[in-house]
Amino acid sequence: MIPFSEELRSRLKANLSAHTRREYDPRGRRHAAVAVVLVDSNSQRHDHEPLSPADIDALIEPGISGPDEQRRLDGRMVGVAGGAAFLLCRRPARMNRHAGQWALPGGRLEEGETPLEAALRELHEELGLRLSPDSLIGFLDDYPTRSGYVITPIVLWGEADPELVASPDEVLAVYRIGLRALVDAIPRLISIPESERPVLQLPLGNDLLHPPTAAILYQLRQVGWFGHTGERVDHLEQPVFAWR
Q1: Which of 129, 109, 127 is nearest to 118 (CA)?
Q2: pLDDT tens readout for residues 46-63
Q3: pLDDT tens track for 81-105
Q4: Within 10 Å of residue 146's Cβ, how many Cβ atoms?
Q5: pTM exceeding 0.85
Q6: Residue 35 to residue 30: CA distance in whole angstroms
Q7: Which residues make Cβ contacts (< 8 Å) with residue 231, sequence separation at least 6?
């Protein structure tokens, strides 16, 4: 596992500071911010799936290599906690947009807000976690989505073991995903007939994450952890089910 430590915080901050961030003009699109929140996790306390199989809306993923892989991808987020982790949400199936999908806490900027202010506000509204601007580690590249948003990802340093109270209207469940699971994941690119751009699939637990969430986390991995400054993700396509 990767320890939740000041050494980790310094590493991420230095690598993100060295990265020249790519920004998109949000005019003509809606501007949103998401929070990539680093916390500590325990493999025994936090490595379980709180939902029953009936409550998990497992999507038929594109690019699956046969029935054995489809059976394994049952949607459960297990085997991923331990050490430094980020917070990942499963959206309720009843939501109007992006129902049942994996997401980072966040949402649309309100009038007059900066992306950092919006990310901090949404984090408190969705997970009951209140952080200050001093928790900022750095920014990742903007990601323009098929659904008409420009997403600004903001990396934040959370408390070691914060109390999380998920808003039932926006969050079905919240998970602590160990950075080690993200670092050890084997990302893959697939083709879809609807686009010439490759779709990124990021295996975590018993599921596959897709852009925009997967693209943001992949850049956190590549730039924040490995220090591959200048590596971009805005060319990565979203699966068709995320276009709405």
Answers
A1: 109
A2: 998 888 877 776 555 555
A3: 999 999 999 998 754 444 468 999 9
A4: 16
A5: yes
A6: 17
A7: 219, 222, 223
Q: Provide the residue type at 195 as one letter.
A: S
Q: What is the pLDDT of residue 98?
A: 44
Which token pair is 185? Answer: 């994941």
Is 212:151 a contact under the CB 8 Å cutoff?
yes
How would you classify the pairing of strands 149-157 and 143-144? antiparallel
What HEC string does 95-157 produce? CCCCCCCEECCEEECCCCCCHHHHHHHHHHHHHCCCCCHHHEEEECCCEECCCCEEEEEEEEE
Structure tokens at 166: 């998920």
- Per-residue DSSP letter, 224: I
Which has the minimum average pLDDT: 52-56, 73-77, 205-209, 228-232? 52-56
| Length reported for the chain | 244
**Residue 207 · residue 73 · CB < 8 Å:** yes
Q: Which amino acid is at 223?
A: V
Side chain identity, residue 83: G
DSSP string, 27-71: TTSEEEEEEEEEE---TTTS-S--S-GGG------TT--SHHHHH
Cis peptide bond prior to 144, omega within 30° of 0 = no
